[in-house]
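Is this the right way to post structure tokens for a design question? Let me know if I should format differently. Anyway, here goes:
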């Protein structure tokens, strides 16, 4: 176990920005939909960030459908459309974990020969997304991402505000380290 990651997992709120030079694709992890089934404010803001980087770099975008629904005006290389298409350890109707999405994104990158990727997600989830993606063998670029609001109407209560999400994120980080996913 890498104790450096344990210390980071408990003390660092989000991943720090790095150079985005050389990024070959944008990999985005979404927030859950709202109770009404809409993408919600978190995914709308993530889409704005993705759009800015796509405008500047014109590189492929690989996203979950929740944020992809907010990006209908730009080309998306690959979108994770439904739980039935995924490979994971949960049943088909269960929550998609960060590791499940990262593995799917890694398979897309491998199929296209992309080894250097930009990861985008909301804070503080971005830290785990970056570390899991690195562990899967991709070179990770972390762009500067502004504060993105949590959606108070999210289908999952723990993703409705930072005070609920942050403590659970730390627990998830430690579990991912324990499992060897970080």
């Amino acid at each position: 176990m890498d104790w450096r990651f344990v210390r980071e997992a408990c003390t660092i709120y989000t991943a720090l920005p790095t150079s985005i030079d050389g990024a070959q694709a944008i990999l985005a992890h979404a927030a859950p939909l709202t109770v009404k089934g809409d993408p919600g404010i978190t995914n709308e803001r993530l889409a704005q960030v993705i759009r800015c980087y796509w405008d500047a770099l014109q590189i492929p975008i690989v996203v979950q459908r929740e944020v992809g629904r907010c990006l209908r005006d730009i080309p998306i290389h690959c979108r994770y459309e439904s739980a039935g298409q995924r490979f994971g350890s949960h049943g088909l109707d269960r929550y998609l974990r960060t590791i499940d999405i990262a593995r799917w994104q890694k398979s897309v990158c491998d199929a296209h020969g992309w080894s250097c990727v930009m990861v985008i997600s909301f804070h503080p989830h971005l830290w785990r997304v970056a570390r899991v993606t690195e562990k899967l063998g991709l070179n990770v670029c972390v762009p500067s991402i502004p504060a993105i609001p949590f959606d108070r109407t999210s289908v999952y209560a723990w993703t409705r505000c930072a005070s609920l999400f942050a403590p659970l994120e730390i627990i998830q980080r430690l579990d991912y380290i324990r499992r060897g996913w970080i």
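Format looks fine. Someone answered above. Worth noting: Confidence is low (pLDDT under 50) at residues 82-93. The helical segments are 3-11, 40-57, 65-68, 98-112, 125-135, 162-179.
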